[in-house]
């Protein structure tokens, strides 16, 4: 008898990906305030700007990937990054 909502067990590659996601999330969470911190006293403004830019980037990626596919989403965020940092 098959249970409703039962998922397949995680493979070792799934666990590796989850571990890398957690490590990268932690590194970004720690480094972001350190990079933004500056002696001008505008930390909150800079932190809010970076958070807003991250939110906009995630929204653009989600819309493009949902509409046109994952490859188009990655191409879109890559193009935006290349335009932002010439």
Order of helices and strands: HHH
Biggest sheet character? none
Structural class estimated from helices and strands? mainly alpha
Which percent bin holds the helix content?
over 70%
Task: Report on the architecture of this protein.
The chain starts with 11 loop residues before the first helix and ends with a helix. The longest helix has 26 residues. It has 86 residues and is mainly alpha-helical. The model has no long low-confidence stretch (mean pLDDT 82). Helices cover 77% and strands 0% of the residues. The protein has a domain of 47 residues.
Briefly say what this structure is.
This protein has 86 residues and is mainly α. Helices cover 77% and strands 0% of the residues.
Itemize the secondary structure elements and their pairings.
Blueprint: H1 12-36, H2 43-68, H3 70-84
Helix pairs in contact: 2-3
Can you tag this structure with a few keywords?
86 residues, mainly alpha, 3 helices, 0% strand
């Amino acid at each position: 008898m098959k249970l409703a909502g039962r998922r397949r067990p995680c493979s070792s590659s799934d666990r590796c990906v989850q571990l890398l996601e957690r490590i990268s999330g932690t590194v970004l969470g720690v480094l972001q305030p350190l990079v933004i911190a500056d002696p001008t006293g505008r930390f909150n403004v800079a932190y809010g700007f970076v958070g807003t830019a991250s939110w906009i980037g995630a929204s653009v990626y989600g819309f493009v990937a949902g509409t046109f596919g994952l490859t188009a989403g990655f191409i879109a965020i890559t193009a935006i990054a290349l335009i932002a940092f010439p």
